[in-house]
Amino acid sequence: MATALFQMRSLVASKVSRGSVCSLAKFATRSASSAVVKYSKRGQPTQCLAMESEDVNLTSLGATDIAVQMIAAPINPSDLNMVEGSYDILPSLPAVGGNEGVAKVTGVGSAVKDLSVGDWVIPANPGFGTWRQAATGAAADFLKVPPSLPAEYAACLSVNPCTAFRLLRDFQELGEGDVIIQNGANSMVGMAVIQMAKARGITTVNVVRNRPQGQEVMQFLKDLGGDVVCFDEYVNTYRFERLMADLPKPKLALNCVGGPSAANLARALGPHGTLVTYGGMSRQPVTLPASALMHNNVTARGFWMSRWNREASRAEREAMVAAVAGMMEDGTLDLWVERHPFADFAHALRKASEPFRFRKVVLTMLEN
């Protein structure tokens, strides 16, 4: 296959130099002027988001607070949905953009016991506002991550990889030899599902849109570990049925598209299978075939990472983060990202808004 997609991984696999993090210690000793991307109205992100400067007092910390310096933060679709006003969680305005990222602790309050200066942390909940250089917050609102991770990986850990982790654990008892089917397989969640399933001996059937460089994307997903990869229009055809006849019926279907694509996944499920919807990229409703419900007793469920985080205990969340970080450290899980300096936010935003994105755009707040 062409090498373009493999070159994407090389941008991350070389890891990130962490020596520059040490230069940020100065933020722990004084007030700092921090660059921040804010919005004071809802609408098109390119028209509402603006970078400005704000003073952040990093020395007068409350007893249970910490000061942090942002290291890296992605631009996720949900971040832009918040700006547009179309997301289920909307912060009060004005608001700092960004929900996910990794930061270095630069100061701790007198009562903080579980975190120390130099630790790496990620926000425990959406709405913190990660598109900035420095901030303060309650220590309880952060989770520790290993500083041995590449900064881009740590910045992107809590949403897409954790979603894949939960999807493979919370809806069906899956073991070696079981089969799952998913659409949107070339999404960040989809690629994480492929890698996590492969490590557990679970067979994946992966459906993607027929798009520019479609054949290259299909080959890339096969090389990543996808057992079967096909276009949307191939599903629900006689040839697809013949192909699936050689495999056990899928126990789990993962839907992030909706519309006819979701219906096709439901048709492919075996008896008592489960269709889990965690996204709706087509903006079409999920309609289930009567045959899937009547003949196979298929169950339809939903999943939202933000809701799971609200309902889970801190111990459960820490265990999940540790498990996913471990996969990143041992090579089980790779991410495909591209880095953009925080100072070039406008350019990074344009890149993140392009159609048919393959790599996630990550803002880097450190000088390399």
Describe the structure.
With 368 residues, this protein is α/β, with parallel strands linked by helices. It has two domains: 31-156 and 335-364, Medium-chain alcohol dehydrogenases, catalytic domain (Quinone Oxidoreductase, Chain A, domain 1, Alpha-Beta Complex), CATH 3.90.180.10; 161-307, Rossmann fold. The chain has helices at residues 4-13, 45-48, 77-84, 151-155, 160-167, 188-199, 214-224, 238-244, 259-268, 290-296, 305-311, 314-330, 345-352, and strands at residues 32-39, 50-56, 65-74, 95-96, 102-108, 120-123, 134-138, 142-145, 179-182, 203-208, 228-231, 252-255, 274-277, 299-302, 337-341, 360-364. Strands 3, 5, 6, 7, 8, 15 and 16 form a seven-stranded mixed beta sheet that branches. A six-stranded parallel beta sheet has the order 11-10-9-12-13-14, sandwiched between helices. A three-stranded antiparallel beta sheet has the order 2-1-4. Helix 5 crosses helix 6 (188-199). The longest helix has 17 residues, at 314-330. The radius of gyration is 21 Å and the shape is globular. The model is unreliable at 1-29 (pLDDT under 50).
* Gyration radius from CA atoms, angstroms: 21 Å
The percent range for strand residues is 15-25%
The biggest sheet, with number of strands, parallel, antiparallel or mixed sense and barrel status, is: 7 strands, mixed
Number of domains: 2
3D shape: globular
Low-confidence stretches: 1-29
Report the count of strand segments: 16
Number of helices: 13
CATH class identity of the largest domain: Alpha Beta
Give the fraction of residues assigned to helices. 25-40%
CATH architecture of the largest domain: Alpha-Beta Complex
Protein name: enoyl-[acyl-carrier-protein] reductase
Main location: mitochondrion
Pfam family, one: ADH_N
Organism: Heterosigma akashiwo (Chromophytic alga)
